[in-house]
Amino acid sequence: MTEDINVSLSNHLIRDDEQEDLCFAFYKASTGNQRITALINEVIFPEIDDRNIHGNVSFNPDYFDKATSYALKNEYGIVFIHSHPFPGWQRMSTDDIEAETMLAPRVKAITGLPVVGMTIGSDGTWSARFWEKTASKTYDIKWCETVRVVGNGLNIHYNENLKPKPKFGQEFSRTISSWGPSKQESISRMKVGIVGMGSVGSIIAEALLRTGIENLVFIDFDTIERKNLDRLLAASEKDIGKFKVDFQKNRLFDVNLRKGLDIEALPYSITEKTGLEAALDCDLLFSCVDMPLPRFTLDGIAYSNFIPVIDGGIDTNPNSDLSNIEQARWKAHTVGPQRICMQCLGQYTPSDVSLEQSGELDNPYYIKGLPKDHFVNRGENVFGFSLSLAGMEIQQFLSMVLQPKGIYYGPKEMDFNFGNIDFDFENSCEKDCHIKAQLGQGDSFNKILLFDHPNAEKSRNKIQEPTMPKVKKANPKTSSGKDSIIKKAIRKLKNLFDDSKGTFPF
Ligand SMILES: [Zn+2]
Ligand SMILES: [Zn+2]
């Protein structure tokens, strides 16, 4: 849920008189490869007559009817939420189980989606469960691993049974002495994805490992080339030809810092099903890509799935006689609910996205005709700048999860010539922003983010089969019915951007 929804729910449910209270909320599903998330979109608070507050709170049938008809109208799933006067992740009382057992078949029959039960403790800690139909007339509790609250900060509430606190040895004593054990336990259990394993991505991977993150996902279809050796952390001549994701994964395992380390290395584009679904399993993503289409995809993921994305970009060029650098700037920002999106920040334009989508950028004659300052011609960068940008992105990450003294960052930009960091940026979207409009839409928007990626396929075909990780077979619908899915996606994208200031000339 977003921070805004968390605040309004907490205000209603955690009562001064210490009585329990309840309400219904509405969700859309976000389906990753291994994780299903219920994204809370809206809440319908009870009127006075809608529930009885007497020790164990209960609701009146009219309130349930109101909730189900609203859910039906808007294609929502239903969340039943109540409070307990105790702190921490809450288990269920016999009454709770009885109430939700009664709701499960009715909600499933009406909405087609499992009811989600949630409980908030007196300290604001959330717990949640899905009620899954396992046989005819049988519904079982499937406890959630986490409840995530996303906005200016990222607060994750962990189910200690499914995600127990990790233990740390001497190798983390100095990190833990900086921010204490409970922050470390929280950070280490996150699942973080890095999209783009080039110069910036490889430094971020290193930093996340040494910050104690145990679950990492690397997404990049590129292989290491000779021209990468001046910027790719730890790569040497003998690594040329390897997938960047495999190389970094193996290298980080060699450090042997955490026994529970789990890294998924995926040689895919974020616009392909395997890449997108793996990203939807993450709690937070780093965008280390430099093309408009993956940026647009990541921007969409952030808002439609409540997954914050930390993005950065470097813009540098030499002077006209190549006697020195003319200017260099790099910028780091976090996008997602309650923050400005990449499009409003000017990190890509819809017309650049459609240009990349058209395939013209693979045509050398087309590229030749583009102006020098076109984004495809802006490839200059050096390791020292990447290092600084990766540092700024890691600071965005730490600021978001630690929020020292309740402070959070907006976008920040480094001006190399003057050595200044500018932080005077807007941090909210324009009113008619099309990305923000996808907030909490989950799978219905994710579908239109899927595209075939011929260059990624080409890159994978170069590499021998045995080094490829085992991944779930693509949905037959996407492989056999390629055209129709792409056409559908394009149609939807077109509708999305039709009246925007940019154009998608499909
Ligand atoms: Zn209860
Ligand atoms: Zn926006």
What does this protein look like?
With 506 residues, this protein is an alpha/beta fold. The protein has two domains: 3-144, Cytidine Deaminase, domain 2; 173-497, NAD(P)-binding Rossmann-like Domain (Rossmann fold). It is built from 17 helices and 18 strands. Strands 13-12-11-14-15-16-17-18 form an eight-stranded mixed beta sheet, with helices on both faces. Strands 2-1-5-6-7-8 form a six-stranded mixed beta sheet. Helix 4 crosses helix 5 (181-188). It is globular, with a radius of gyration of 24 Å. Residues 473-486 and 498-506 have low confidence and may be disordered. The chain binds zinc ion (ZN) (2 copies). Keywords: Nucleotidyltransferase, Transferase. Residues 459-482 are annotated as: Disordered. This is ThiF family adenylyltransferase.
Low-confidence runs: 473-486, 498-506
As for the number of domains, it is 2
CATH superfamily of the largest domain: NAD(P)-binding Rossmann-like Domain
Fraction of residues in H or I helices: 25-40%
- The strand order across the widest sheet is 13-12-11-14-15-16-17-18
Terminal-residue CA separation:
34 Å
CATH topology (level 3) name of the largest domain = Rossmann fold
Distinct ligands: zinc ion
Envelope shape: globular
